[in-house]
Design a protein that fits this description.
3 domains, globular, NAD(P)-bd_dom_sf, Sacchrp_dh_NADP-bd, seven-stranded parallel β-sheet, Saccharopine dehydrogenase NADP binding domain-containing protein, alpha/beta, binds NADP nicotinamide-adenine-dinucleotide phosphate, disordered C terminus
C-alpha cells in the first residue's frame, strides 16, 4: 500500500505535468487512471458521505474507499455495501492526532462530516495539509469556506491540492456559473452583470438531520449578496422569486439564503451582482422557514446545541413529509450580460441524496486525475477545476439527471409555452403576454442552433 500511496503523493509536486500526461491518455478509462488510490470519506456513514462512497465505487471500482466515522455498526454496513476493497475506519474529526494518522495513509480525503456552520476551525483541512493528503469538502457555509481558502498558501507550499465547497450546491452550481461566464466572455463582447443561483429541493431532499440543522443555522445568518459591485446584507428567507426550473420541476418560489457561492462567484468570476436563493416543498415548509427566520431570535438560530434540539423535534415530521414530498432537486443559474444576453444552466435530478453523491464523486475524481493545482480553491477557480476538466466534471455529475442544460436562453428551457413568429425582418417571441422583438438574421428553416444564438441576446421589453 505504501507504494500506491507514494505514487499519488509523489505526483503532487508535478501536477501540471500530470494534467498534460492525462491529456495524452484521453482514451484511458477512469478506472485505469485512478486505480488503487485510497480515498477516505469522512461522514461516510451519513447520507452525503454514503452516497459519495457509492457513486465513487461505481465510477471507479478499483478505488479503495475507506468509510470514516464514529459509528462502527453503520460504518461496517456501508463498507460491506461497497465491497471487499472497502473498510470502515473509526475516526472522530475532533481527535486531531488520530485524524492525522488516518490521513497519512490515504491519497484523498472527502470531508462530509458536517455541519460546517460555526465549526470554528478547519481541522480536517489543516490535518490534510500536514499529512500531504489531497482534500475536498462539501462545505456550504460562507465563513468556513473563506477560512479554508485562507490555507491556500500553506496547501500550495505542501503541494496539497484542495477544493472547498465541492458537492452539488455549492459545487456543481459554481462550475455551471463559471462556464456560463466563460462562454459569455468568449462568445460576445457583453460583460457579465448579474448572476443568480436558484435552488429547489423537495422536502429535506432525503438527506440527513445534519442538513436540516444546516438549514436552520442558515436562517440565523444575514444574507450577503452583491449589487453592482457593492456588498449588501439582507434578511434571511426574504426576497421571494418565482423561478421556472423547467422540465420535471416547473415554477417554484425561492428565498434568499446566505450561501458561500455568492461571495466566491463575485470574487473569482468578477460578476458585480450576485445572489442565491433556495426553496423547498411542500409550500408550508417555506412558510415555516419564513416564520422561523422572522420569529426566532438570530442568537437562537446560531446556537448549534439549540438547533440540534430543534432538529430532533422536527426530524420525525420532516421524514414523514419526505415520504410524499419526494426529493427532487434542481439548480438554475442565470447569467445576464450588459448587451442583453441572458443565458441559463439547469440541473435537475429526482433524488438529491443520489445527486449529491454523484456530484461529490465527480470532484473527487477530478482531483485524483490531477485537475486541481496545489492550494485551496473554490470550484469556479481554474486552479480548482481546470477549464478543460469542467465539461467532464459536469457530465459525470449529471449522471442520472432528468434535465441538464447549459448555456441556453431562458425561453428554451422554461416550461411556459413560447410562440416564435417571423414577420418580415423581425422575430417575435411571445412569452405569455410579453412580446419581444428582434431583427431576424438570415435563418434557413428555423435551425434551432441558429435560433438559439440569435435569441440569446433578447432583453425583456
Ligand atoms: N455542498 C453540497 O452540495 C451539500 C449538499 C448537501 C449537504 N451538504 C452538507 O453535507 C453535510 C452532511 O450532510 P448529511 O445529510 O450527510 O448529514 P448526516 O447524514 O447527518 O451525516 C453526517 C455524518 O458526519 C459524521 N460526523 C459528524 N460528526 C463527526 C465527527 N466529530 N467525527 C466523525 N464523523 C462525524 C456522522 O458520523 P457518525 O456516524 O459518527 O455520527 C455522519 O456520518 C452537511 O454539513 C451538509 O450541510 C452539502
Amino acid at each position: 500500500m505504501a507504494g500506491v500511496l507514494f505514487h499519488f503523493k509523489r505526483l503532487m509536486p508535478i501536477l501540471g505535468s500530470v494534467v498534460k500526461e492525462r491529456e495524452t491518455k484521453v482514451n484511458e478509462s477512469v478506472e485505469e487512471r485512478t486505480k488503487n488510490y485510497r480515498v477516505l470519506i469522512l461522514g461516510g456513514t451519513g447520507r452525503v458521505g454514503g452516497s459519495t462512497a457509492v457513486a465513487l465505487s461505481k465510477l471507479s471500482p478499483d478505488l479503495q474507499i475507506l468509510v470514516g466515522g464514529r459509528n462502527r455498526v453503520k460504518g461496517a454496513a456501508m463498507a460491506n455495501k461497497l465491497g471487499e476493497k472497502s473498510k470502515f475506519v473509526e475516526v472522530n474529526i475532533d481527535d486531531v492526532m488520530a485524524l492525522e494518522a488516518t490521513l497519512n495513509d490515504v491519497d484523498l480525503v472527502v470531508h462530509s462530516a458536517g455541519p460546517f456552520q460555526q465549526a470554528g476551525k478547519c481541522t480536517v483541512l489543516e490535518a490534510a495539509i500536514r499529512a500531504k493528503t489531497a482534500y475536498v469538502d462539501v462545505c456550504d457555509d460562507t465563513c468556513y469556506a473563506w477560512r479554508a481558502k485562507s490555507f491556500c498558501e500553506k496547501a500550495a507550499a505542501a503541494n496539497v491540492p484542495a477544493i472547498t465547497t465541492g458537492g452539488i450546491y455549492p459545487g456543481v452550481s459554481n462550475v455551471m456559473a463559471a462556464e456560463l461566464v466563460r462562454a459569455a466572455r468568449d462568445e460576445t463582447k457583453g460583460n457579465p452583470e448579474r448572476l443568480r443561483f436558484s435552488y429547489y429541493t423537495a422536502g429535506s431532499g432525503g438527506v440527513g438531520p445534519t442538513i436540516l440543522a444546516t438549514s436552520f443555522l442558515l436562517l440565523g445568518e444575514e444574507v450577503v449578496a452583491y449589487s453592482k459591485g457593492e456588498k449588501v446584507t439582507l434578511k434571511p428567507y426574504s426576497g421571494v422569486l418565482n423561478v421556472d426550473f423547467g422540465k420535471g420541476i416547473r415554477k417554484r418560489d425561492v428565498y434568499l439564503l446566505n450561501l458561500p457561492e455568492v461571495s466566491s462567484a463575485h470574487e473569482v468570476l468578477g460578476v458585480p451582482t450576485v445572489s442565491a436563493r433556495f426553496g423547498t416543498a411542500p409550500f408550508f415548509w417555506n412558510w415555516g422557514m419564513e416564520a422561523m427566520a422572522f420569529l426566532l431570535p438570530a442568537e437562537f438560530l446560531r446556537d448549534r446545541i439549540k438547533v440540534q434540539q430543534l432538529v430532533q423535534l422536527f426530524d420525525p415530521l420532516v421524514r414523514a413529509v419526505d415520504a410524499f414530498a419526494g426529493e427532487r432537486v434542481s439548480i438554475r443559474v442565470d447569467l445576464e450580460c450588459s448587451n442583453g444576453r441572458h443565458t441559463v444552466g439547469i440541473f435537475s435530478h429526482r433524488r438529491l441524496s443520489e445527486a449529491v453523491g454523484t456530484a461529490t464523486a465527480a470532484f473527487a475524481l477530478a482531483i485524483l486525475e490531477g485537475s486541481t493545482q496545489p492550494g485551496v480553491w473554490f470550484p469556479e477557480e481554474t486552479e480548482g477545476i481546470a477549464v478543460e476538466a469542467r465539461e467532464i466534471l459536469l457530465n459525470r455529475a449529471a449522471e442520472g439527471t432528468i434535465n441538464f442544460v447549459m448555456n441556453k436562453p431562458p425561453w428554451m428551457v422554461e416550461t411556459d409555452p413560447k410562440e416564435l413568429i417571423q414577420v418580415g425582418n423581425y422575430i417575435y417571441v411571445d412569452e405569455v403576454s410579453r412580446i419581444q422583438k428582434r431583427e431576424a438574421p438570415q435563418i434557413d428553416n428555423w435551425n434551432p442552433c441558429q435560433l438559439e444564438s440569435t435569441l440569446c441576446g433578447f432583453r425583456q421589453l
